[in-house]
Amino acid sequence: MGDLVSEKFQSVDISGIEPEIGAPAEGRVISGNPQFRTWNVEEAEGGLYAGVWESTPGKWRIEYDEWEYCHILSGVSVVTEDGGEARTVQAGDRFVIRPGFKGSWEVIKTTRKDYVIRA
């Protein structure tokens, strides 16, 4: 029975998980050389993802087709919607970005966040 319970509970513990290394898509970088590390701890049917993401400083264009909940764990970033206000996010901030969001993400100080994405 214990095994059945553990299959339904997923800790968001990244120790021992090798991160995926990445960067913004080609042509999206506005400034700097942002580098990503992503620890995806959950990938469920229907396009549901959860884990931890981190980026070094830089600025790039973002366009969301998916819904994402973010909780900033450390660092400072500025998320700006096209035609909208610039929002500074830092440790403790939580927010949702909805499909159709277009703008930029600028990492001022290396930023780490928990995320849940629904594609």
Description:
There is one protein chain. This protein has 119 residues and is mainly beta. It has a single domain (2-118), classed as Jelly Rolls (Sandwich), CATH 2.60.120. 5% of the residues lie in helices and 60% in strands. It is built from one helix and nine strands. It has one helix at residues 2-7, and strands at residues 20-22, 29-32, 36-44, 48-55, 58-63, 67-81, 86-90, 94-97, 102-118. Strands 1, 2, 3, 4, 5, 6, 7, 8 and 9 form a nine-stranded antiparallel beta sheet that branches. Strand 6 (67-81) and strand 7 form a beta hairpin. The longest helix is centred in the N-terminal third of the chain and has 6 residues, at 2-7. The protein is globular and about 45 Å long. The model is unreliable at 1-5 (pLDDT under 50).
Helix content: under 10%
CATH topology: Jelly Rolls
Number of domains: 1
> Helix and strand string, N-terminal first?
HEEEEEEEEE
Total strands: the figure is 9
What is the 3D form?
A: globular
How does the helix and strand content classify structurally? Answer: mainly beta
Distance between the termini: 32 Å
Model regions low in confidence, pLDDT < 50 over at least 5 residues: 1-5
Which oligomeric form is depicted? single chain
Tell me the CATH superfamily: Jelly Rolls
Mean pLDDT: 93
CATH architecture: Sandwich
- Tally of helical runs: 1
> Cα-atom Rg, whole angstroms?
15 Å
Q: CATH first level: which class?
A: Mainly Beta
Strand content: over 45%
Sketch the major β-sheet. 9 strands, antiparallel
Domain (S)-ureidoglycine aminohydrolase cupin: 43-115
Protein name: (S)-ureidoglycine aminohydrolase cupin domain-containing protein
